[in-house]
Design a protein that fits this description.
Distance between the termini: 65 Å
Number of strands: 12
Order of helices and strands: EEEHEHEHHEHEEEEEHEH
Shape: globular
Strand content: 25-35%
Number of helices: 7
């Protein structure tokens, strides 16, 4: 008998992608005060993928080209300051059934880092590191009985691209990273079973991997085009359950293991030069030692 999907979608509140990041005055972090924040774009892709899996599994007159197992529920989770509740409401407006908010106390985390010999200051000082996030998600997976995690391959603020892989390692699950397509296919070796098929782009073209549940999948930009949260869905999201937790509830230590020494903006690019013809270009390249 087919096991219903219980999907976990982690989401993160980050500086809006349209805002140009600025280094703070102490050169220890990116300035986050009085800056517009929004849902991490890669997490929007994960939410859309989860919702499409549910739509493909829902019986109806229009059969999907890529059917999937029945989706029991989609759970969104975020950890950070209280303002993370905003992105969770957005996630539920986009299709998540319920949400968990894990409050992380920035001052306490920053004090812990300072006591160990330094650390970044400001709002970002209390953020969980990728390993801490992976440990938290592993605890939530076990507590909530999840069998599929769909998460963005990275967040656009730190670009770590580590959490999904660490989570799969902690759980001992299979993983498929940087998904450009996610679909399910019947598993001939198991009666009523399903296999996950993930296609991803690589340097030489595309690569397809298959795995059985439980599984961790990380999403890439070409996976889909996320839907907008409509006004009726935004209103409905206010009535969906949102549970508030703390790290201690899951037995996770939020202490930092890494210390940011300095953050600097990249040097401005130098202007290019014009040449009259090919001979001039070759001569210029020789002057620069390129050929």
């Amino acid at each position: 008998m087919s096991v219903p999907l219980k999907i976990l979608v982690p989401v993160k509140r980050v500086i809006d992608y349209a805002i140009k990041p600025r280094v703070n005055s102490t050169r220890t972090a990116i300035e986050t005060q009085n800056v517009k924040h929004s849902l991490n774009p890669f997490d929007e892709l994960s939410l859309e993928a989860a919702v499409r899996l549910r739509e493909a599994s829902t019986p109806g007159p229009k059969k999907s080209k890529n059917p999937s197992p029945l989706v029991a529920d989609i759970l969104a989770i975020s950890a950070g300051p209280p303002k993370c509740v905003d992105v969770l409401r957005t996630a539920m407006a986009m299709g998540a059934d319920r949400a968990i908010f894990v409050e992380v106390d920035p001052p306490a985390a920053a004090a812990s880092a300072d006591a160990e010999g330094g650390g970044a200051e400001g709002e970002g000082a209390g953020e969980l590191e990728p390993l801490g996030v992976a440990k938290l998600l592993a605890a939530v997976v076990k507590a909530e009985g999840r069998n599929l995690v769909v998460c963005g391959k990275q967040s656009i603020d730190d670009d770590s691209n580590q959490t999904g892989q660490m989570l799969a390692g902690l759980l001992g699950w299979g993983q498929a990273t940087q998904a450009a397509e996610i679909c399910f296919e019947a598993d001939g070796d198991v009666e009523g079973g399903w296999r996950v098929r993930v296609t991803k782009e690589v340097d030489g073209g595309v690569e397809t991997v298959r795995g059985r549940l439980p599984m961790v999948v990380t999403t890439d930009l070409r996976l889909n085009e996320p839907r907008y949260a409509s006004l009726p869905n935004i209103m409905k999201a206010k009535k969906k359950p949102l549970v508030k937790k703390r790290l201690e509830d899951y037995g996770v230590d939020g202490g930092r293991r890494l210390r940011v020494i300095r953050v600097e903006e990249p040097p401005p690019r130098k202007g290019g030069g014009k040449v009259e013809d090919v001979d001039g270009m070759i001569a210029r390249l020789r002057e620069l030692g390129a050929i």
